[in-house]
């Protein structure tokens, strides 16, 4: 017999590093979710930009079941067909020549940062070890990735953290010019900052970052954990910037919720991770790679990618209409279906109030920092769900304004 659990069970048995909502989802289909009480929600959160093809996508369920009857796991003493097929597709569809598989975005970034230092060590010597990243960036929760991430709150209490890391303001090329040197081994950036407030990179800024990396023999690492796999309206957001990185990390949407991450690299950069330099017990396992291959096959089509752009406009128009009525946001921005609505200064720190009110209205949304309401729905969310979800969001906005 299955034991009954409630939200109170969390407080009894779980480490208190999360503060989950009162409701517990138990079932999802497409862009709708139902909780233990049978209440329905429209999902504009996507598991924090993860469920790119919605819940219980029939093709992914089919692929998972088929692979579950074949092989779940093999050690990296050998390879497997799903991993090889997925790696081949990722290299064919991107700038990259080589792939390393992990279980998450943080692990993909850990691999990328280790590669950057090893590449510099092998080619230029041990003094070339500094990494430059950007304030408000987010690259994961391991000790190395929170150190590269530009949000000090995630490092507090865990010091001493890895050194040799510097930060500057995003989209500020003059600050970067002042920091970069012959000691720099890599510049790490998100094409669109996610946790930092849904802030896209300026094209000219990205172009100059690439030029500086070339000038100082530093690798350019793009963290596309959140922006990748169609969320920006192209398979990867770097395609829209006109800038090609040396290394790219991807996860979240790649598995539609099944844990998988990948680091993509040029052949030149990838050679730094020679035999025995890095590894992952579960990385590249057949279950994860078979599902991720199916995700790539579905997402990387004109129908889905053009659909992302059309849905983006529906969100922009809908959010602007709500804002014209209630005047609560000072900016609505983003790329594709990674969007943010920044609250006005008088509501600073209260983005979470919109999340709570939305949940009461039957809508799942997110925050990106204290001042931005974030929307990251399925890339194939039906238009009727967008319309209904925006209607519920308007109810939430009205409630926040009334309070």
From TrEMBL:
Binding, pyridoxal 5'-phosphate: 105-106, 138, 223-226, 281
Amino-acid positions noted as binding N(2)-acetyl-L-ornithine in the UniProt annotation, renumbered to this chain: 141, 280
Any one Gene Ontology cellular component term annotated for this protein: cytoplasm
Enzyme Commission number, as recorded: 2.6.1.11
GO biological process: L-arginine biosynthetic process
InterPro entries: Ac/SucOrn_transaminase_bac (IPR017652), AcOrn/SuccOrn_fam (IPR004636), Aminotrans_3 (IPR005814), Aminotrans_3_PPA_site (IPR049704), Class-III_PLP-dep_AT (IPR050103), PyrdxlP-dep_Trfase (IPR015424), PyrdxlP-dep_Trfase_major (IPR015421), PyrdxlP-dep_Trfase_small (IPR015422)
Binding partners and assembly: Homodimer.
Similarity field: Belongs to the class-III pyridoxal-phosphate-dependent aminotransferase family. ArgD subfamily.
Designated name of the protein: Acetylornithine aminotransferase
Organism the protein comes from: Maribrevibacterium harenarium
Underlying gene: argD
């Amino acid at each position: 017999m299955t034991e009954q659990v409630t939200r109170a069970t969390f407080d009894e048995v779980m480490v208190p590093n999360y503060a989950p909502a009162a409701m517990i989802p138990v079932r999802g289909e497409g862009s709708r979710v139902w909780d233990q009480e049978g209440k329905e929600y429209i999902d504009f959160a996507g598991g924090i930009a993860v469920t790119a093809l919605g819940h219980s996508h029939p093709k992914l369920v089919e692929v998972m079941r088929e692979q579950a009857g074949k092989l779940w796991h093999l050690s990296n003493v050998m390879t497997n067909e799903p991993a090889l097929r997925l790696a081949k597709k990722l290299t064919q569809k991107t700038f990259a020549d080589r792939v390393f598989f992990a279980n998450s975005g943080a692990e993909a970034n850990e691999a990328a940062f280790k590669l950057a230092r090893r590449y510099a060590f092998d080619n230029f010597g041990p003094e070339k070890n500094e990494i430059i990243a950007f304030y408000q960036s987010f690259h994961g929760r391991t000790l190395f990735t929170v150190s590269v991430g530009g949000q000090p709150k995630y490092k507090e209490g865990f010091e001493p953290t890895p050194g040799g890391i510097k930060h500057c303001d995003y989209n500020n090329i003059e600050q970067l010019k002042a920091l970069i040197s012959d000691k720099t081994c890599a510049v790490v950036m998100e094409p669109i900052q996610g946790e930092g407030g849904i802030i896209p990179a300026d094209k000219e800024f990205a172009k100059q970052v690439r030029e500086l990396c070339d000038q100082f023999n530093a690798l350019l690492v793009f963290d596309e954990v959140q922006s990748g796999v169609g969320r920006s309206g192209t398979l990867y957001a770097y395609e829209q910037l006109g800038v090609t990185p040396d290394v790219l990390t991807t996860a979240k949407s790649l598995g539609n919720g099944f844990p998988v991450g990948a680091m993509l690299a040029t052949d030149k950069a990838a050679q730094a991770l020679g035999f025995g330099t890095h590894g992952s017990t579960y990385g590249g396992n057949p279950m994860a790679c078979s599902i991720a291959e199916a995700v790539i096959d579905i997402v990387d089509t004109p129908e889905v990618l053009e659909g992302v752009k059309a849905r983006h406009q529906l969100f922009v128009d809908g959010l602007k209409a709500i804002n014209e009525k209630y005047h609560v946001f000072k900016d609505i921005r983003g790329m594709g279906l990674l969007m943010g609505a920044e609250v006005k200064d008088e509501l600073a720190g209260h983005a979470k109030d919109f999340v709570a009110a939305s949940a009461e209205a039957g809508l799942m949304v997110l925050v990106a920092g204290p001042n931005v309401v974030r929307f990251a729905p399925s890339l194939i969310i039906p238009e009727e769900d967008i319309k209904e979800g925006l209607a519920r969001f308007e109810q939430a906005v009205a409630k926040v304004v009334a309070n």
